[in-house]
Sequence to fold (248 residues):
Amino acid sequence: MSTAQQTLLLIGATSDIGHATAQAFAGAGWNVLLTARNTETAQRNRDDIAARSGSEVSLLHLDILDTSGFATFLDGLPVLPDAVVCVVGELGDQQQAQGDIDHASKVIRTNFEGPALLLGMIAERFAQRGSGTIVGVSSVAGDRGRGSNYVYGAAKAGFSAFLSGLRNRLSPGGINVITVKPGFVRTRMTEGMKLPPLLTAEPGEVGAAILGAVQGRKRDVLYVRKLWRPVMMAVRAIPEPIFKKMRL
Fold:
């Protein structure tokens, strides 16, 4: 199958990373199915991507927290995609999450429960067909719990573990599962934060890396930027008695 005939399902079209990723795939000739809860904002992204690329770009409504509607959503897709990329995420507020169970639940469900359950259902359909690529955008925040964002980090850690298990289970059947771990990305979610230049990526950089991983199939776990891999190896290696005295 040529690239021009391939279809991407992009979960989370209103995010900056989602927009950039969809643009990268459309620019490479893929047909793109965008999903979003806020279709008004996503429509502007759809129009922009279609105008820039000339590819077929469609928009579908999907609420990642409405897990009961996942089966109906998948049954209604015009085609089973060749690849799915889930970029859904919500940083939330750690201080609020510590005392507000509803806020903490939303952060955990948005970053872990919803994406994991949806990708699990898509994985079953890919397995029946015998082909497909699944990309889940997790975070370096899930590599080790830190006091400054452990609710978000725990959700991303769970998502990374889910993707790892899915990859282990499905790889013999030809299904590719890729975990993408961005560090800091210059988006609306990080607006106002003081970000280290060497460790901060642009949305387009993440989108291009995801496209390269899907087309090249060279990585199971992809850090964006690459410098994050040794950085997080060092962070994970810090002994717990020392780590718990640090303020990270």
Remarks:
- The CA atoms of residues 69 and 211 lie 28 Å apart.
- The beta strands are 7-11, 31-36, 57-61, 83-86, 132-137, 175-182, 184-185, 200-201, 221-224.
